[in-house]
Specification:
The chain is mostly helical. It is built from seven helices and no strands. Keywords: Membrane, Transmembrane, Transmembrane helix.
């Protein structure tokens, strides 16, 4: 546990360091990855709903020069796995209310990851859910894929941002329990 002098506890390996000395760097690096992914989804939505592009042509930023990225279930699954891993690896650094919001994000991402695992399994086997012509997730049976992934990313991102905000601005109890230096200086 951190003392009021700001001393950090002894670390136990790379994950311990990631949640103490390097927590702020880890959280910020993770945020950059998440925002880059968000930019791809927002760009794709703009291409469809503002520019009027057909869905197969709306491939975001990276999908334009590399169209296979958009159709690669491996790439989508890989990102879902990176998100899940980031939320798990950085979790121990959060305390109190921030941990609660981080856990909400983690829970939603766990489901999102399972949906991508289902999509990847279908892509690898050629056996598609409900006889659909392409890999299809459970919720995609009700909501189109572009809109569904905008929604998933939003509901994972929103509690993650709340967690980061609260983590940087802890109350006294949370600050005393923190093992990192992420908190801003008290006013």
């Amino acid at each position: 546990m951190a003392s009021h002098s700001g001393a950090l506890p002894a670390r136990t390996g790379p994950i311990g360091s990631m949640n103490t000395d390097y927590h702020r760097i880890g959280v910020n690096a993770f945020l950059v990855i998440v925002l880059a992914h968000w930019a791809e989804h927002v760009t794709q939505a703009v291409q469809i709903y503002v520019m009027g592009w057909p869905v197969p042509e709306a491939r975001g930023v990276l999908g334009l020069p590399f169209p296979w990225l958009v159709t690669s279930e491996w790439m989508h699954y890989g990102y879902a796995l990176v998100m899940l891993a980031g939320l798990i690896l950085l979790r121990k650094g959060f305390t109190g209310r921030a941990r609660t919001w981080w856990n909400i994000s983690l829970g939603i991402q766990a489901w999102h990851h399972l949906e991508h695992l289902l999509l990847l399994g279908q892509a690898l086997t050629g056996l598609h859910l409900m006889g659909k012509p392409v890999p299809t997730s459970m919720i995609q049976l009700l909501v189109p894929r572009v809109e569904l992934h905008l929604f998933y990313n939003a509901i994972v991102f929103a509690p993650m941002v709340v967690a980061m905000w609260l983590h940087r601005r802890p109350n006294e109890t949370e600050r005393a329990a923190m093992n990192c230096r992420c908190a801003t200086v008290a006013a």
